TrEMBL record:
Transmembrane residue ranges: 12-29
Lineage: Eukaryota, Metazoa, Chordata, Craniata, Vertebrata
Membrane topology: Single-pass membrane protein
A GO cellular component annotation in the UniProt record: mitochondrial inner membrane
PROSITE patterns referenced in this protein's UniProt entry, alphabetically: THIOREDOXIN_2
Native organism: Chaetorhynchus papuensis (pygmy drongo)
SUPFAM superfamilies assigned: Thioredoxin-like
Pfam families membership: SCO1-SenC
GO MF, one annotated term: metal ion binding
Name listed for the protein in its UniProt record: SCO2 protein
């Protein structure tokens, strides 16, 4: 309780201290709630076993690639196809923008953008290389046999279904529109739908990086 005869300066100091303590307590509770939310999210993703399976694909240079090649780095991964009329280009633009925002902070760990085709029949290495030139310069494209691509999609629970062919033999591939964040241990940390902006995606990735603790050996 405030003393009746306390000078104004001291009363202001007491009030300021009380306000600062309240603000610190509120901030602590907010951070604790966010840590708990991320922990629940990670448990849910692990329960789904998202991304636990390996994949065997090839990059645009023809080199064999597996998930082990990306261990030790954070990865933003998107499944799509080069003949996609609008959704895939929009999502890759967003992914590239998020990576650019994070690259501005040299203190953050490396982040690898990755694109896996769901249409290996049309998306060979040359087609992927041509297509990905329009997006982030470090975006790595992966393709493979239909069996290898199906296995990679299944590892991340990505739905894939090719539609009927038209008179020209063209078709659209229906697939899950999600961007996955994979940590340096190879575990899926989060996934982002179309409603998330590049700025929101970058903030979420940064928060996961800040909270990351490597798995024990």
């Amino acid at each position: 309780p405030e003393a009746p005869g306390l000078p104004l300066r001291q009363r202001l100091a007491v009030a300021g201290a009380v306000a600062a303590a309240a603000a610190a307590g509120w901030l602590y509770l907010r951070q604790q709630k966010e840590r708990q939310r991320r922990s629940r999210r990670l448990r849910d993703l692990r329960a789904l076993a998202l991304g636990r399976g390996d994949f065997q694909l090839r990059d645009t240079a023809g080199a064999a690639r597996s998930k082990a090649d990306f261990l030790g780095r954070w990865v933003l991964l998107y499944f799509g196809f080069t003949h996609c009329p609008d959704v895939c280009p929009e999502e890759l633009e967003k992914l590239g923008r998020a990576v650019e925002l994070l690259e501005r902070d040299a203190a953050l760990p490396p982040l690898q953008p990755l694109f896996v085709t769901v249409d290996p029949e049309r998306d060979d290495a040359a087609a992927l290389a041509r297509y990905l030139r329009d997006f982030h310069p470090r975006l790595v494209g992966l393709t493979g046999t239909p069996e290898q691509v199906r296995a990679a999609a299944a590892a991340f629970r990505v739905y894939v279904s090719a539609g009927p062919r038209d008179a020209d033999g063209d078709y659209v591939v229906d697939h899950s529109v999600l961007t996955f964040l994979v940590d340096p241990d190879g575990l899926c940390r989060d996934c982002y739908g179309r409603s998330r902006t590049a700025e929101e995606l970058a903030r979420s990735v940064r928060a996961h990086m800040d909270a990351y603790e490597p798995l024990p050996p």
